[in-house]
Design a protein that fits this description.
Strand content: over 45%
Number of helices: 1
Distance between the termini: 36 Å
Radius of gyration: 16 Å
Number of domains: 1
Low-confidence stretches: 1-24, 27-34
Oligomer: single chain
Mean pLDDT: 79
Helix content: under 10%
Length: 184
């Protein structure tokens, strides 16, 4: 695993209940009522830089399919661009996989299939490796190495069952607030 660094970055992820009509994830799934979107707010030094909404559905076999994202990039408090936005139901695009049902080391797959816009892929590089974060110790982990056919470089992400992404190329989870926690 790469070393962890702290940056003047804040990301907040919110689970939204939504419906997205999109193409299937292979032949195994298509979103229906109650599927989810993750809304992410990213700030740098307190200034909003991006809001994205990522759309997912889980197939019967447990595979989590990725149906696209809406992106609002901000400059000076105003929407400036929608870079990287895509939907699986746009012509030429297809749904990808964000997490295989059985993520075995060495497994590779396409996450985003939107030619010329979003062409990300991932490979499982470790599973079950413990990670210690401010929120606690986790062992039910899957570590991915992600790359793009469009952009150079790679990124490392670590996911924990029941939590989601806890590490993203040096950025790490510092707290979890569940809906019941907020109500107390």
């Amino acid at each position: 695993m790469t070393s962890r660094i702290r940056l003047p970055f804040l990301g907040t992820t919110t689970l939204l209940l939504t419906t997205l009509l999109a193409a299937g994830c292979g032949d195994s799934a298509s979103p229906e009522e109650g599927d989810t979107a993750w809304e992410e707010y990213e700030t740098i030094d307190g200034e909003l830089v991006e809001i994205s909404r990522n759309y997912f559905a889980q197939a019967a076999d447990g595979t989590v399919c990725y149906f696209g994202e809406e992106v609002d990039d901000y400059e000076g408090g105003q929407v400036s661009d929608h870079g990287g936005a895509w939907r699986a139901d746009d012509p030429g695009n297809r749904a990808g996989i964000i997490m295989p049902a059985l993520p075995a080391v060495g497994t590779g797959y396409w996450q985003e299939i939107a030619p010329g816009v979003a062409e990300d892929r991932a490979r499982v590089i470790a599973a079950g490796e413990p990670i210690s974060l401010p929120e606690g110790e986790f062992t039910d982990t899957v570590e991915m190495l992600e790359s793009s056919a469009i952009e150079p470089g790679t990124s490392e992400k670590i996911y924990v069952r029941g939590v989601g992404m806890v590490f993203d190329s040096g950025l790490e989870l510092v707290s979890i607030t569940r809906p019941n926690d907020a109500a107390e």
